[in-house]
Amino acid sequence: MIIQKKIFGFLSISILPLLLLVGCDRTQNIQLGNPSQANSSIELTVSAAASLKNVMEEIALLYQQEYPDNKIIYNFASSGSLQWQIEQGAPVDIFISAAVTKMDALEKQDLLLRETRRDLLKNQIVLVAPKSNKNNSLQLDSFDDLTTNKITMIALGEPNSVPVGQYAQEVLTSFEIANKVNSQAVYAKDVRQVLNYVTTGNVDAGIVYRTDAQVSDNVKIVATAPETSHSPVIYPIAVIKDSDNSDAASELIEFLTTPEVQTVFEEYGFDLVIGH
């Protein structure tokens, strides 16, 4: 019995390291056998003009179905603010601007990945007013009506950083009413703030994109600016040169030009740019 116990003890001591080794090997196989699972998830940071918020959030759901391992993180603001953030080195994969000039500025600084820039969408400039106007005597039917004495406050985008503000100034200049209107202007940080000022009735009118007017039930479109009265409202898109996910970012741009996604853009009132 004593001999058997000694033999058993010897075998136990001898086998124990082997069991531990096998256990370690199995653990390593589990960890090393799925490296792609751990690293396949990609987060794409998309800095997009504020006017794209609603449509891009819906498109993100479609993208998730097509690319379940990828995730889009949005940063919505005025195109001028987003341009400045990128210039300061903010980690951005894709930039979608509401003005060609903002994208041009980044391209001149060699901050865009070459051959990824393209024109994605078009929009229109409209004059809007609250649907339930507190001032019942206010008659607003055209841009020229902005100069009447009954108009006291008009919401506009800040023209130096907000593209819709720049377009608005071009329209007002075209109608030769810029000086009068600007003296009554309340300036906003982006187009959605302009829209908010109008929907809450804090101003008599505002100038926004057609697509923004369409997402609100509390404003009415009074007039659409003639295309000859302002620069074309083009939304360019590009991959940022310092992107860590340039391949996935380029794939996302291609995804945005597919028929299914383009249909969503149209449903939200955007016009498509021919020639993709």
Q: What name does the CATH topology of the largest domain carry?
A: D-Maltodextrin-Binding Protein, domain 2
> Largest sheet, if any?
6 strands, mixed
**C-alpha Rg (nearest Å):** 28 Å
What's the end-to-end separation, in Å?
A: 87 Å
Task: Output mean pLDDT.
Answer: 87
> CATH homologous superfamily name of the largest domain?
Periplasmic binding protein-like II
Name of the CATH architecture of the largest domain: 3-Layer(aba) Sandwich
Strand content: 15-25%
- CATH class category name of the largest domain: Alpha Beta
SSE-based structural type:
alpha/beta
Number of helices: 11
Query: What is the N-to-C succession of helices and strands?
Result: HHEHEHEHEEEHHEHEHEEHHE
Low-confidence regions: 1-38
Question: Could you name the key traits of this structure?
Answer:
single chain; 6-stranded mixed β-sheet; D-Maltodextrin-Binding Protein, domain 2; 276 residues; 5-stranded mixed β-sheet; alpha/beta; 11 strands
Description:
It is a single chain. By secondary structure, the protein is of the alpha/beta class. The protein folds into two domains: 41-122 and 234-272, Periplasmic binding protein-like II (D-Maltodextrin-Binding Protein, domain 2), CATH 3.40.190.10; 125-224, Periplasmic binding protein-like II (D-Maltodextrin-Binding Protein, domain 2), CATH 3.40.190.10. 43% of the residues lie in helices and 21% in strands. The protein has eleven helices and eleven strands. It has helices at residues 2-32, 35-39, 53-66, 79-87, 100-108, 163-174, 178-182, 191-199, 210-214, 246-256, 259-267; strands spanning 42-49, 70-77, 94-96, 118-123, 125-130, 154-157, 185-188, 205-209, 219-224, 233-239, 271-272. The strands form two sheets. The protein has a six-stranded mixed β-sheet with strand order 2-1-3-10-4-11. Strands 7-6-8-5-9 form a five-stranded mixed β-sheet. Strand 1, helix 3 (53-66) and strand 2 form a beta-alpha-beta unit. Helix 4 packs parallel to helix 5. Residues 1-38 have low confidence and may be disordered.
